[in-house]
Amino acid sequence: MPLSVKLNENNRPTAWGIGLGGSYTSLNNKNFTDDMVSEIMNLQVGLYHLRPLNDKWSMRASAGVAVLAPSADLSKIRFKHVLGSGGIIFIRHLKPNLSIGGGVAINSSLGYPMIFPAVYLNWELDGKFDMNVELVEGLDVSAGYSFNDWFKLSYALEMNGQAALLEKDGKDVIFSHQYIVTGFRPEIKVGKTGLSMTAMAGLNLFRPASYSDRTLKGVFAADNDYYFAVSPYVSLGIKYNFGK
Questions:
Q1: How far is CA 16 from CA 4, 5, 139, 154, 160, in A?
Q2: Average pLDDT, stretch 208-229?
Q3: Which candidate in 36, 69, 175, 226 could, as Cys together with 81 as Cys, close a disulfide (CB 3.0–4.6 Å)?
């Protein structure tokens, strides 16, 4: 949600904004003999800043806090479930529709601040037929066709996941759940309001889950402990373009 936006002569924004997010995941763990996390609640709030540095470069910075809990019971939330994060990425505008970038991200997932590399990619091809590749927070790839001003149909591939911080066998661990989904994504624009109704129907192709110790060695040594089978996938959503 942008708090302020100002465009320069190249139509690139200097913007301040706030990001809010949340998800609840229930992992109906049938046929698993081991003890596995059955629900995950993730809540995030953060501040971001975007500004052009010159004709070819922009900078994107963010800082925030998240709750990564193995339960939706707010009374069970403890400080060990809280994660701080931040980062800065320098973005190179190669073409009007292609930008790549890199930088650093910092978070406390290991129990102390740790720096990780960060990658940014955004490529768009506009027109009746459009393509979009975005690697910012997860991966989103889509190819779509606009039948008219209010209806577009895309085929998309998304990769994302959730995580929970908890204690297991006397040690602090991270439980992570990833997924790759693909399918058709219709989008209907509601007049000129900037509001769109969107959905996706397809398959959940790959869903591993694993525990890893909250140490640098544990993160790189982590293996996928569990796998969920391919399953149908359906989602519904609402989008609002604040530029309208």
A1: 5, 7, 23, 30, 25
A2: 74
A3: 69
Q: Are 156 and 62 in contact (CB under 8 A)?
A: no
Per-residue pLDDT tens over the stretch 127-186: 788 888 888 777 889 999 999 889 999 999 999 889 999 888 888 889 888 889 999 999
> Domain residues of the chain, as ranges?
2-29+38-240
Return the percent helix, strand and coil in the chain, to nearest 5: 5, 70, 25
Q: Enter the tokens of residue 177.
A: 């759940």
C-alpha 235/C-alpha 204 separation (Å) is 11
Tokens of 84: 């701080």
**What are the pLDDT digits (tens) for 52-69?**
999 899 999 999 999 999
Asked whether 92 and 101 are in contact (CB, 8 A), the reply is: yes
CA distance 138 to 161: 8
Structural contact between residues 69 and 41, judged by C-beta atoms closer than 8 angstroms: yes
Selection from 86, 134, 80, 151 nearest residue 110 by Cα: 80
